[in-house]
């Protein structure tokens, strides 16, 4: 059975698992988790699991924005899906 062709109308995922986000940045699994723990990779908490906001992460990797944002801090609200630093 041939591999599924990606449809150009397929949307990118809104959130990424930490290892998947790390792969986009050429990081291994351990380095990805280290970046998430240190705050070098933005994360949100959804149902007790840490995820990486896909659109923000791609913008960071493409040089369209920086992390952490100007001012150096991000307000956090545990369990509310707010970006954490």
Instruction: Enumerate how many helices there are, as a single number.
Output: 3
The percentage helix is 25-40%
Order of helices and strands: EHHEEH
Structural class, from helix and strand content?
Answer: alpha+beta
Shape: globular
The count of DSSP E runs of length 2 or more, i.e. the number of strands, is 3
Report the sheet-strand fraction.
5-15%
What is the mean predicted local confidence, pLDDT? 81
Question: Radius of gyration from the CA trace?
Answer: 14 Å
The main sheet orders its strands as 1-3-2
Topology at a glance:
Blueprint: E1 15-16, H1 18-24, H2 29-38, E2 44-46, E3 49-53, H3 54-61
Antiparallel strand pairs: 1-3, 2-3
Give me some keywords for this one.
3 strands; 29% helix; 85 residues; 3-stranded antiparallel beta sheet; alpha+beta
Brief account:
This protein has three helices and three strands.
């Amino acid at each position: 059975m041939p591999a599924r062709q990606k449809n150009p109308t397929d949307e990118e995922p809104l959130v990424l698992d930490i290892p998947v986000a790390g792969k986009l940045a050429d990081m291994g699994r351990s380095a990805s988790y280290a970046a998430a723990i240190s705050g070098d990779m933005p994360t949100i908490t959804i149902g007790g699991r840490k995820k990486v906001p896909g659109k923000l992460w791609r913008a960071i990797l493409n040089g369209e924005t920086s992390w952490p944002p100007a001012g150096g801090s991000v307000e956090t609200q545990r369990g509310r899906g707010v970006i954490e630093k």
